[in-house]
Design a protein that fits this description.
Structural class of chain A: alpha+beta
Number of strands of chain B: 5
Number of helices of chain A: 17
CATH superfamily of the largest domain in chain A: Histidine kinase-like ATPase, C-terminal domain
Radius of gyration of chain B: 14 Å
CATH architecture of chain B: 3-Layer(aba) Sandwich
Distance between the termini of chain A: 150 Å
Number of domains of chain A: 4
Largest interface: A-B, 43 and 42 residues
Shape of chain A: rod-shaped
Largest sheet of chain A: 6 strands, antiparallel
Strand order of the largest sheet of chain B: 2-1-4-5
Distance between the termini of chain B: 21 Å
Strand content of chain B: 15-25%
Structural class of chain B: alpha+beta
CATH topology of chain B: Glutaredoxin
CATH topology of the largest domain in chain A: Heat Shock Protein 90
Largest sheet of chain B: 4 strands, mixed
Number of domains of chain B: 1
Strand order of the largest sheet of chain A: 4-3-8-7-6-5
Order of helices and strands of chain B: HEHEHEEEH
Number of helices of chain B: 4
CATH superfamily of chain B: Glutaredoxin
Oligomer: heterodimer
Helix content of chain A: 40-55%
CATH class of the largest domain in chain A: Alpha Beta
Strand content of chain A: 25-35%
Chain lengths: 510, 107
């Protein structure tokens, strides 16, 4: 009984399976008849052969498929619900999704779009609606978060009734190009700023024609040409390397060594202004085109300053020699009188006086010394008496270095003498130091040392070095005349000299 | 409902054979993906095979037309032909919905 039931059950199962197969066969036939299939597969000795039912044979289809697979741009087709109906091998690689996993899924499964500008998305939709196509750039964010800069061309697909059935996108990965463009942009901004803001003139020349193709703002400022007038000119036309032979040599050297440097070249701007410039020229290539970059630095001021320093050094040397000669004479004359101890003191004082005058000259860069400052420096030991027993009276007047040296030494001798024997040797005596400019047919400068209230003085019996300093030496320094009077009230000294030998030119003009 | 509940944990393995981007094939891909997302969320594996690119893959499953969907699991193996637009028939065939009438025949 059990066996009988078992065989009955097996028969029923077999029957059901046969029914199912029959149903499948019927369904297949129905689907073919009602046109729900695209292709039929026929098993042959060469394997399955596929025949499409739309006039295209399988070989054509396969050929098309292979072509699309070879295209390096990603190609994706979607239906009206944005479900992926096709993607080629490049799209599989670009988005990291293989076809079987991606097909039928919505597009956002494999990437999401990020627009470069807020208005781009609406513009793309409008273009697709109105023109049926859109081309543009945006960012595709893959499912793994990786961002791709892409350039897309999207076309609306339509059925035979003309109604939209989906979209076809051809997508090119431009991430690397974008990154390069960004790098180039950053570089352009950075180096353009250097070029524009440089405080050296920069010219770019065509190496073939030697004509200017670019110039920075500082160059136009240096030359006084607007930029557009510089373009197309040769160097000699802007006042640089006017000598043809020298110009040719520079270009020859550039071709050979790719760099030349001229430490000092004359540059004459159109207004006739002469400048001295340093030129460094480099030969290089811009996208295969040889160009020359010339950096031009105006060194006129630097050269002037160097010349000035050179002149000053020569002057210092000359003056140092003069001063040493004076010191030698002072030492010699001082040694003639008195014992060695007195000699040392007197020599030290006199050199001190010379040094005070020297300090003032250095302070004024050897241009000259104000009389008032010279007097105060030489009377530094009696500073507290100035304004009380020592009165200074005279207009602003700047002595030449030589006059300052001669008058300074004389003032030092007069002050030493006044302290020892004259008006400053007691408690009441006074000294007036008066100077003036005499505006005459031959303008003159006059300075006087007038003592009053000191002990009675008499002319010394012999002419010591002090006498020589306030007399002959002072006269020689200013080409003037010195007069000394030994009066009842004290010593009077006056030195008069032509203005041009005494005061600086500036002072005369003032 | 009872049948649907019984299958709630069953994993479906489906294979769709298509021929490139022909109209029925593209529709079949979208339609079956939609059905799976709505009714088999997270418990299906769908493999789409383009027999125009790989004709040899049509041999093993005895494919005679495309598009063809094969339910490999759960057994028994089931076969559906067409663009998968008849959602109710597909759902019934996949045992995801009870037949409304006993006379309904499904592949």
């Amino acid at each position: 009984m059990h066996k009988h039931l078992s065989s009955r059950s097996a028969l029923l199962d077999e029957n059901a399976a046969l029914h199912a197969q029959l149903d499948e066969a019927a369904e297949t036939l129905r689907a073919i008849r009602s046109g729900e299939v695209d292709a039929l597969v026929v098993q042959s000795s060469r394997g399955p052969q596929i025949y499409t039912l739309q006039g295209q044979d399988a070989e054509t289809n396969r050929f098309r498929g292979e072509m699309l697979a070879q295209v390096s741009d990603a190609i994706i087709a979607v239906d009206g619900d944005e479900r992926i109906t096709y993607l080629n091998a490049a799209a599989e690689r670009l988005y990291g999704f293989d076809g079987p996993r991606a097909l039928g899924r919505t597009l956002t499964t494999i990437f999401k779009s990020r627009w470069l500008h807020p208005q781009d998305e609406a513009a793309a939709r409008t273009a697709l609606q109105e023109r049926g196509e859109w081309r543009g750039e945006n960012v595709h964010v893959r499912h793994d978060g990786h961002e791709l800069n892409v350039e897309s061309s999207i076309t609306v697909l339509r059925g035979i009734d003309g109604l939209p059935t989906g979209q076809l996108a051809v997508i090119r990965d431009v991430t690397e190009r974008k990154q390069n463009e960004d790098r180039v942009l950053v570089s352009e901004i950075r180096y353009r700023r250097l070029f524009e803001a440089a405080h050296d003139g920069v010219l770019v020349l065509d190496a073939g024609t030697h004509r200017i193709i670019d110039a920075n703002p500082f160059m136009t400022q240096m030359l006084g040409y607007p930029r557009d007038q510089l373009i197309g000119k040769e160097l000699f036309e802007i006042g640089l390397l006017r000598d043809d032979a020298a110009s040719q040599e520079m270009f020859r050297n550039l071709e050979r060594a790719e760099q030349v440097r001229y430490e000092s070249l004359p540059l004459e701007s159109p207004g006739g202004r002469h400048q001295t410039v340093e030129v460094v020229a480099n030969l290089y290539e811009e996208n295969g085109r040889p160009v020359i970059q010339c950096n031009i630095r105006d060194i006129t001021e630097r050269r002037r300053s160097e010349e000035h320093v050179k002149l000053l050094m020569a002057e210092v040397n000359h003056r140092a020699k003069n001063l040493l000669a004076v010191v030698q004479a002072v030492a010699y004359q001082t040694a003639k009188h008195g014992d060695p101890a007195t000699f040392a003191d007197r020599l030290s004082e006199r050199i001190g006086g010379l040094a005070a005058g020297q300090d003032l000259l250095v302070k004024s860069e050897w241009k000259g010394v104000e009389v008032c400052e010279l007097v105060e420096a030489q009377l530094a030991h009696f500073k507290e008496l100035i304004g009380r027993r020592v009165v200074l009276d005279g207009p602003p007047a700047q002595l030449t270095p030589q006059a300052a040296q001669g008058i300074g030494m004389a003032l030092h001798e007069l002050a030493t003498n006044a302290v020892k024997y004259g008006a400053l040797s007691n408690g009441e005596g006074r000294v007036r130091i008066v100077w003036k400019i005499i505006a005459d047919s031959t303008p003159a400068f006059s300075i006087s040392w007038l003592e009053d209230g000191g002990p009675k003085v008499a002319a010394p019996g012999r002419k010591g070095f002090g006498q020589i300093v306030i007399g002959r030496m002072a006269e020689a320094a200013v080409q003037g005349v010195a007069a000394i009077t030994y009066g009842e009230s004290g010593l009077s000294w006056n030195l008069s000299a032509p203005l041009e030998d005494t005061l600086t030119v500036i002072q005369v003009a003032a | 409902m009872v049948a649907a509940a019984a299958h709630a944990a069953t994993r479906y393995v489906l294979r769709l054979y298509v021929t490139g981007s022909t109209p029925h094939s593209t529709r079949a891909i979208s339609n079956i993906r939609k059905i799976c997302e709505e009714h088999l969320d997270g418990r299906y594996d769908l493999e789409v095979i383009d027999i125009s690119q790989y004709p040899s893959l049509a041999k093993g499953e005895q494919i005679i037309a495309a598009p063809t969907l094969i339910r490999k699991l759960p057994l028994p193996l089931r076969r559906f032909i067409g663009d998968m637009s008849q959602t109710q028939r597909i759902l019934l065939g996949l045992d995801l919905r009870k037949a409304e009438s006993s006379s309904a025949k499904l592949p």
